[in-house]
Amino acid sequence: MTKWKEDEKPEKYGILVNAGHKFRGDIIVTLYEKEFGLYPYYHNFSDLTSAVNGGIPQRANLSAHLSKVRSDIEKEIPNKDFDGLAIIDYEEWRPLWEHNWYTKRIYRNASLAYVEEQYKKTGKALTNGDELAKQEFNQAAIKRPNALWGFYGMPFCNYNAGKNGTVGCGEVFEEFNNRLQPPHVEATAFYPSIYLPSRNSGRTGCLYVTSVLQEAKRCAENLSIPIFTFNGIEYFPLNLLIHIMPK
């Protein structure tokens, strides 16, 4: 079910695919945090000792990260004239402090611990550590290491959008996306996600997709950059597909 037959040519339906149906190729390349550069994250959201590459962006080695990014690009996109879609899929943490909630709260806690550690070294008294940690996280996350092409899932939208019967990502997410516009984050395309694997209501799903696309259009309006959506075309679960296929 996951492989194309030799006589199946998606190109004849106007679908662009990588040569040989490779995951990374001449049309589209998606690069993930654990294999692209030296992206800082926590392997275990409940364990502050599980830091990888420093854990938080404040501790990231920017020069080492960019050096590996360059070598990774040469490896994964060897064609210097590549003009396809290049997506960076960084999802372990969100680039603004206040949006790291639930399991991602570890990045707030680690940022606060980092600030306290720095103050202990200087012997200065720390006041309002939360605000300082927030400022440092935001500055580091926006300026390093995120600085290439387009990012999966951006612009962001409230995952509950559409559930109240209306269209819109909400003021909180609009303000969030405004803060992630150039010159803070450089992007030559937007790659919002409109996956709908768990939405039971057709109307709710439609309102959600409309909300995401509306927000992406709003953000791209003054930038003159294209929008490409990530969609799920799989059947969930696979058994449903098996039942409707001819024997």
TrEMBL record:
Belongs to the glycosyl hydrolase 56 family. It catalyses: Random hydrolysis of (1->4)-linkages between N-acetyl-beta-D-glucosamine and D-glucuronate residues in hyaluronate. One of its GO terms (biological process) is carbohydrate metabolic process. One of its GO terms (molecular function) is hyalurononglucosaminidase activity. Its EC number is 3.2.1.35. PANTHER family: HYALURONIDASE. It comes from the Eukaryota. This is Hyaluronidase. Keywords: Disulfide bond, Glycosidase, Hydrolase. It holds the Pfam family Glyco_hydro_56. It is an enzyme of class 3 (hydrolase). Signal peptide: none annotated. The keyword Metal-binding does not apply.
